[in-house]
Write a structure and sequence with these properties.
By secondary structure, the protein is α/β, with parallel strands linked by helices. It folds into two domains: 138 residues, no CATH class; 171 residues, Trna Endonuclease, Chain: A, domain 1 (3-Layer(aba) Sandwich). It is 36% helix and 16% strand. It contains eleven helices and twelve strands. Helix 1 crosses helix 3. The longest helix has 16 residues. About 2% of the residues have low confidence.
């Protein structure tokens, strides 16, 4: 996506707060965006979880270059700007940053739309007090949601590689506790309870159970069976892999056994089962399970393999586990061969 340079500069003026005057005598001349110095500009982009740091050059031109770089990131089409640009607009229009007007910021919104509408977009506040972008041609609204199928930015691709390396070395318990539990919490599941592996007699085929509340306030219960390695359907399973027939039996146990929900003080059955693999779920394993299930239970069992975990975790903007964090490069100015003072 490409904006005209004059529109990038005009938008950068709003980000750095060059528009309006503090000593204005009329509303048309008043300031509606806070002034941001070099350090404040850096904080603005840090709050967006980016690596942009102001280099001391002209603030407006530097921000315009950054906006041009952000708009060049992968996105879903001409009517949907990159997610980072949408988050930037939402942060720019935060009601907490209002000046000389109410929390709905009508004058700031008018200044912003004077720029965006020249590029075919319109900004507006929704009922949740967040600012969204609507494409004026298609009327489609870009919603900030965890979409695992969208193109990844370069930084997200690096995080995905680090997480993939962590999945190669972590244990099954680490997969559940450090990856799956935070990810499902971020995706909106609640009352997430891990059975653990210390007392397998109490698992009844499930490692985790959780529930999800629909917009209609109906509650669905989910069980989760996780395996670290690959799931296959071969007659002789290799070391580190798991056989789909065994997972099938555990899924049936999961669906047949009741769980106790202390919030409603009653026992309930699991509605759906997740089969999660830290490795690949082979096509033959999926086909075998599809043939083994009758029509009534086929919709109750869902799959998440390695790629699904990586994509969902990355788009959920969760921090990587400590073991997956990149190691800091050595400091060239620190001489470790000299004795301390």
């Amino acid at each position: 996506m490409k904006f005209k340079r004059r529109n990038l500069v005009a938008l950068a003026d709003l980000v750095v707060g060059n528009v309006g005057r503090d000593d204005a005598e009329t509303e048309d001349e008043a300031k509606y965006f806070p002034y941001r110095s070099s350090s404040r500009i850096t904080e603005f982009f840090q709050d967006l979880d980016t690596e942009y740091r102001h280099d001391g050059s002209t603030r407006r031109e530097w921000v315009a270059d950054v906006l041009d770089d952000i708009l060049a990131q992968p996105h879903e089409g001409p009517s949907h700007p990159p997610e980072l640009f949408c988050r930037l607009i939402d942060q720019l229009m935060s009601p907490a940053d209002r000046l000389n007007e109410g929390p709905d910021r009508p004058r700031a919104l008018a200044l912003l739309n004077a720029v965006l509408e020249r590029e075919g977009f319109h900004a507006f506040y929704a009922e949740d007090n967040h600012c969204y972008l609507r494409h004026m041609g298609t009327q489609s609204v870009t919603v900030l949601a965890a979409n695992p199928h969208r193109p990844f930015s370069k930084a997200e691709q690096e995080r995905r590689k680090l997480l993939a390396a962590y999945l190669d070395s972590c244990s099954e318990d680490d997969l559940i506790e450090k990856i799956l539990l935070p990810m499902f919490r971020q995706l909106g599941y609640h009352r997430i309870t891990a059975a653990g592996h210390k007392d397998k007699s109490l698992e009844y085929g499930k490692d985790v159970w959780m529930r999800y509340t629909l917009p209609t306030q109906h509650v669905l219960y989910f069980g989760l069976q996780a395996k670290k390695g690959k799931l296959d359907a071969s007659g002789v399973t290799k070391a580190g892999n798991a056989n789909m027939a065994e997972i099938h039996n555990q899924a049936l146990m999961m669906l047949a056994h009741e769980i106790f929900d202390p919030e409603v003080n009653r026992r309930v059955l699991v509605d759906h089962a997740f089969i999660v693999a830290g490795g690949e779920i082979t096509k033959s394993a999926r086909n075998w399970l599809g043939n083994a299930l009758d029509a009534s239970k086929r919709s109750q069992i869902m799959f998440l393999d390695r790629d699904d975990i990586l994509n969902l975790y990355v788009v959920s903007t969760l921090p990587l586990p400590d073991e997956a964090q990149p190691s800091s490069p050595p400091n060239p100015w620190l001489k470790t061969d000299e004795p301390p003072f």
